[in-house]
Amino acid sequence: MEKKRHALRKLLEAVEHELLRKPNRKTLDRLSLLAGYQNWESFQEALHGTGDGEENYEVGEKQKK
């Protein structure tokens, strides 16, 4: 029983470690795309700065012309 308890504790520690790990750059860029931004930097600018994401749409409109 003690071995099972130890194994379960190790498994829970491993899961907790994975949940607390910071996502890599590729994941952050993909999440930003889902939110409507080109990449992580543009999302961060909109979130913390003065950018509002409109430049993403302006580029698309310029390409259509």
Question: What topology does this entry show?
Answer:
Elements: H1 2-20, H2 25-34, H3 40-48, H4 54-64
Helix pairs in contact: 2-3
State the main characteristics.
65 residues, mainly alpha, 4 helices, rod-shaped
Short description, anyone?
By secondary structure, this protein is mainly alpha-helical. It has helices at 2-20, 25-34, 40-48, 54-64. The chain is 75% helix and 0% strand.
Tally of contiguous helical segments: 4
Shape: rod-shaped
Question: How far do the termini sit from each other?
Answer: 70 Å
The description of the largest β-sheet is: none
Oligomer: single chain
Q: What radius of gyration results from the CA coordinates?
A: 20 Å
The topology string of helices and strands comes to HHHH
Give a count of the beta strands, DSSP E runs of length 2 or more: 0
Low-confidence stretches: none
SSE class: mainly alpha
Portion of residues in beta strands equals: under 5%
Percent of residues in helices comes to over 70%
Mean pLDDT: 80
